[in-house]
Design brief:
EC number: 4.1.99.3
CATH superfamily of one domain: HUPs
Pfam families: DNA_photolyase
Strand content: 5-15%
Number of helices: 19
Shape: globular
Number of strands: 8
CATH topology of one domain: Rossmann fold
Catalytic activity: cyclobutadipyrimidine (in DNA) = 2 pyrimidine residues (in DNA)
CATH architecture of one domain: 3-Layer(aba) Sandwich
Organism: Rubripirellula reticaptiva
GO biological process, one term: photoreactive repair
Order of helices and strands: EEEHEHEHEHEHHEHHHHHHHHHHHHH
Distance between the termini: 48 Å
Strand order of the largest sheet: 2-7-6-3-4-5
Radius of gyration: 23 Å
Bound molecules: flavin-adenine dinucleotide
Amino acid sequence: MASSIIQDDRIKRLNDKDCVEGAYTLYWMQQAQRSECNHALEFAVQRANENKSGLLVAFGLTEDYPDANHRHYRFMLEGLANVANALNRRSIAFVVRNGKVPDLVSDLARDACELICDRGYLRHQVEWREIIANEAPCAVWQVESDVIVPVEIASDKREYAARTIRTQINETAKGFFTDLSTTSLEKDSTRLSVNGLDLTKIDDVLLQLSVDDSVRPVDDFKGGTSQAKAKLKTFLSRSLGSYDDPISVLDPAVSFLSPYLHFGQISPLAIAIEVQQKMGVSTDAKDAFLEELLVRRELAINFVHYEKEYDSLKCLPSWAADTLDKHESDKRNHHYSATELENAETHDPAWNAAMIEMKHRGYLHNHLRMYWGKKIIQWTNTTAHAYRTALDLNNKYFLDGRDANSYANVAWLFGLHDRAHQERPIFGKVRYMSADGLRRKIDVDTYVSQIENEFESL
Ligand SMILES: Cc1cc2nc3c(=O)[nH]c(=O)nc-3n(C[C@H](O)[C@H](O)[C@H](O)COP(=O)(O)OP(=O)(O)OC[C@H]3O[C@@H](n4cnc5c(N)ncnc54)[C@H](O)[C@@H]3O)c2cc1C
């Protein structure tokens, strides 16, 4: 059922200042880059109507966003162009400005009655909110919209594994499966005059930005909510029903939604509701998908929220750190530098194909990500070097990189959220994955020839 009610658990005051006289109510959009099923946006509309003010939505584009390159910026700008059109249709003003995010938001906050922001969980996102809540002369509200269950409701501590958070998250999720309807903005705000970047000319915007352009945009993924919804529609009609079946390499039954989730171009709640409501699909298939979207994804968010060292090996459980340490000097039969790995110059055609696909498509199926990452541990000389190489390549090439999922899953390769296994060379008690293990999951030969055919000439 559609409702404009935003659960109190999603809302938090970030300072104790009052609502003041101002030219507009300001929504600083950063994580939830969408106009649909965005609790922060709907809350901002409600506050603007209450304040009898217009609504300005502002996005801060910074050239030195951690680890971002041309591939990420283009995808994001395509999404922001979608947001601009959608907000315009709702008579809401939207501005994207380039600069230091806290400075440009604080600048706009000087003329605001109130400021509303959404919620990302990485270190710099938290720091930006703290600075802005301090500097804004008005009340600042945070509204959490990129999880199904608000992170502190899911758990009040860092969880050990999926098994320790699953019951609580599945139980509490029931209270949050409420679709969100839109509230009309009473005061047309499209005439608010604020200068920003022209999103009808993304190429020009990209030329103005000094960002790393060594990683090119990809053909298979275009950014934006409309693209995300098209992917979801295809997934629901063609693949959800076989989500719990073994994968076909040529046509994997996955949603391809991770880049859109990463940039907040689609809401996890909206996806989950559509999955639940889909007729003619088994409960097992739906549950298997929700295990990933709800339990695993929100376990990763629990991890970056409660673990300060989420991007360092210090985050590992002690059993994993100890066993890797004990086996660090074990002999490696193959040894590659970070450059050889990045150039896909190993003896293993399946691994090379995965690296090539990652570089050119910006995406890999989960089984291939596992194999790719486990082999980096096996073929590099220290755990620290393996961790840094895997995380750097992950964040450089994946469109969904630099996400809570990136940090949790790269650390998972080294034992995070996992249990001890039978001890073996190099890995110690950390889970191992062999080439045969990959062969049991996918048709490796077909996969390798498919990648060679598709990307050989590039
Ligand atoms: C070494 C390694 C690195 C990874 N790096 C990333 C990364 O940088 N960014 C990223 O989003 N995911 C990462 N993952 C998790 C997972 O592989 C991807 O989320 C998934 O493959 C994305 O494809 P999809 O959207 O088609 O997934 P689907 O199977 O359609 O799943 C739907 C959604 O559920 C979530 N999900 C699926 N699998 C996982 C998982 N294992 N853990 C947490 N959430 C999951 C994602 O949000 C995904 O979009 C990594 C996994 C491994 C093993």
